[in-house]
Q: What sequence folds into this?
């Protein structure tokens, strides 16, 4: 067996981490660095790495684990609590970019049968990645404000709406089946999923409560179920595997072991699968194909990605009675696209829904929106420096901070243990 | 892209886990169950799974992570402390099976150029896996005895001797180079490794102490280094990649973050890579090729695997002044082969050192010795029920129990957190 893949994986891990650390220095998420690593190492620049089938399959596994983890984090009860206004903000904030992406792409996409391709760029446009916004708001002490809460709530619903849009479009890209049949299959998939959820969520909860010796089996069994459901979604319903993974995650969400599961899948993700996924996206970008039209398209894509979320979410917020300033803040907070847009775009290439030369512009759009979001956010939150009148108690914000506090606590435990062992060895 | 590999991975995870749980019921290590899963699912029985290149590469990664973790666990200072008698027990306990395996295979292996093949089965014979012995001794309360300490010490040295034997034999299997050149390359590899260790171990220690915010980068960077060193061992010195991974582990061993690293690589291992590795071993076994000669060979292999360790280690112990009874106990405690023998055997197939029809017998030998060890151990430790006169304080035993106590403590922390979150949600 050739062992060259060890070298390739080492290169991916090193370059994504080093560039990730660099981008973090500039207060940007490490995802941007990981993408850049793929761009730099790949055919677009140094040409040290090419895509292999191992990378493709690890990347696919990586997306599945990312979506499974997103499902684990989703709290269906919170979706209801997020309320009417968060729903309206998210809905209009999905529809405006969807329509906008469609028409913008239509103007540039030549050829026949481009309807689904144009529609697909619209779907890529809908995905919001809220983590960079949350970090920025925390940094400037504005997370617990009325607008901060609205952003968090709308982002949760945005994820679900994005999944639905993705499911419909990738199913349509299938074997040329009629629209009606595809919609029936999607409806059947979601109906089956509701039944599976209702049965299995209780079974899992009962099992997790009853048994508590060897926790590894929870992790392995839930992962096997996730893969099986992702496979079943594709094989029996023609639905994207990542939709299946997300729904599998929902089944294990809010169970007594979910923190443990999240921690373990997070580890599987960051030690191997995510770096390969993000790097492989960068490898897919082919720079020489960037004609003038594509450069222009990229610029317009970035501008329109920013504008459509600000307009859509801002309009939604205004309709729900938020002030003009708060509506602008909410709109700006939803600009960043991040990994969800990339996951969707990657799926689109595999399904033949995205032309290769459009992939570069989409990656640029994701990088640009991610860089712009913190800058713009700080601008729109400027003004009255210490104003606590706007602070709001929120369960969403509390939970977010809770999870981080727990991270610190378990790290402290580990450190304490290492310190003890260290001193034992040095002074026996 | 085909998504069938999701189904295959799910099947591997499910079957290895379910059979692992079953074998654990019978107080056997889960490795046996994972092997059986591969046998049952593979061409030997149900034929539901075949080897794919993804599985091959994931299995190889799995072995590398297992060996890296073994390196992380190795304490070079303990190797010295284990002392002269542990060294003598391990050395004779390696030489007798090595010679025994060689001659036994020579009697069955027809054809030309079989010298290295016969020698290789001898190398597979040398590897001791002590975990099942430790569990059994703990269960019957004999771990902290004089013989228990000797077993633990000798097992540590046995690992290192096994690595050296494996390195030499796989290097010889290379491109038909002269023995002298191969030995020079191996010597060069170990010399370079000593220098790399001396420089990098200090650098790593300094870095780990100085920096303590984002621990993920320790994990990713050390993994990248492990892959790079495994690659370099093969590419520049013709040395097995798993030897490189083991030495990479030594560089990070005994640093302030090693507990954290072990926990993370353990997770990467059990969630994906190990199940694939053990199942893929089972998939490699081809039952129809089992002629009468092979069945006889299997039986003799098992008998001789048991006898050669008892004789070798027992002789070593007797020479070091242990009583006849204790020498027998020490010999029996070293019988179990476990994953190390499988890792070696797997490497041998890849290097063309092992004929395919010999692989089935080796897998059977590993399963048999693992099943026999606890049974025989309980027999030889029978007698005076509550005898504390033999108990000994030992740092090796303390450390082993320490690591387990830590496991429980961190689980308790997680549970507490989950309980808090659970009660928060149910009574908001």
A:
């Amino acid at each position: 067996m050739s062992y060259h893949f060890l070298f390739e994986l080492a290169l991916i891990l090193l370059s994504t981490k080093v560039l990730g650390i660099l981008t973090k220095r500039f207060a940007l998420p490490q995802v941007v660095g990981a993408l850049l690593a793929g761009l730099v190492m790949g055919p677009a620049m140094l040409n040290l790495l090419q895509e292999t089938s191992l990378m493709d399959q690890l990347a696919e596994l990586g997306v599945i684990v990312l979506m499974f983890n997103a499902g684990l984090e989703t709290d269906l009860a919170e979706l209801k609590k997020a309320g009417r206004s968060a729903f309206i903000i998210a809905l209009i904030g999905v529809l405006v970019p969807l329509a906008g992406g469609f028409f913008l792409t239509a103007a540039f996409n030549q050829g026949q049968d481009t309807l689904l391709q144009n529609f697909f760029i619209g779907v890529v446009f809908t995905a919001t990645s809220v983590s960079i916004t949350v970090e920025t708001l925390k940094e400037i002490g504005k997370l617990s404000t009325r607008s901060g809460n609205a952003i968090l709530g709308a982002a949760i619903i945005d994820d679900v709406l994005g999944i639905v849009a993705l499911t419909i479009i990738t199913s349509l890209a299938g074997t040329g089946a009629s629209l009606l049949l595809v919609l029936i299959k999607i409806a059947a998939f979601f109906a089956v999923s509701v039944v599976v959820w209702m049965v299995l969520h209780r079974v899992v909860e009962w099992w997790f409560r009853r048994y508590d010796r060897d926790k590894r089996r929870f992790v392995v069994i839930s992962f096997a179920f996730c893969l099986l459901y992702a496979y079943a979604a594709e094989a029996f319903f023609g639905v994207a595997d990542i939709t299946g993974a997300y729904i599998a995650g929902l089944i294990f969400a809010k169970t007594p072991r979910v923190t443990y599961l999240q921690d373990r899948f997070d580890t599987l993700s960051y030690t191997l699968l995510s770096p390969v996924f993000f790097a492989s996206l960068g490898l897919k970008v082919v720079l020489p194909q960037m004609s003038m039209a594509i450069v222009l398209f990229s610029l317009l894509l970035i501008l329109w990605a920013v504008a459509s979320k600000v307009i859509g979410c801002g309009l939604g917020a205004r309709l729900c009675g938020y002030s003009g300033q708060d509506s602008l803040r909410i709109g700006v907070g939803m600009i960043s696209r991040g990994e969800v847009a990339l996951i969707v775009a990657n799926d689109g290439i595999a399904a033949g829904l995205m032309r290769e030369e459009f992939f570069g512009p989409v990656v640029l759009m994701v990088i640009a929106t991610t860089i712009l979001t913190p800058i713009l956010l700080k601008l729109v939150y400027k003004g009255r420096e210490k104003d606590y009148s706007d602070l709001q108690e929120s369960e969403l914000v509390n939970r977010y901070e809770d999870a981080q506090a727990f991270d610190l606590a378990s790290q402290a435990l580990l450190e304490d243990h290492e310190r003890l062992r260290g001193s034992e060895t040095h002074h026996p």
Summary: Chain B touches chain A through 69 residues (CB under 8 Å).
